[in-house]
Task: structure prediction
Amino acid sequence: MLLSYRMPREPSTPRITVWRKLKRLGVAQLGDGLVALPADARTREHLDWIADEILAAGGTAGVWLAQRTSLAQERRLAQTMAAARAAEYRAVLTEAEQARSLGEAERRRALRTLRAELRRIHRRDYFPPPERDTAQAAVDALHPDHHTEETA
Result:
């Protein structure tokens, strides 16, 4: 799915809001005002909503069902999206490793925060990289029951 759009520079708030929503969806930026997501009912619905929001803000928008012209092109797009998620998972892994040395209360807080972050990343993870499992395991290791088993 492609979303092609243009928004007025001012006011900037609608433009920033749209960009944040697109980022939360995990879009691949193909060019200025052109983003892509894998085609399914959920992504189409989200892009349609965002297109409506852009139109309401005085912009122009169109949602397109794209057809790849080469398998290599599709692979590059998937690799780009996977690399972006891999970086997010590495950041979670780093935070989980740092949280291991915290006291129990702080570790529990970190566990809740990192689980929520993993859920946000999973929602936009269309091509899961290997870092996904590593980050999940590191966050799971923060659970008190897991920690007790490790030290026993």
Notes: Strands lie at 2-6, 28-31, 34-36, 60-64. The radius of gyration is 19 Å. Confidence is low (pLDDT under 50) at residues 147-152.
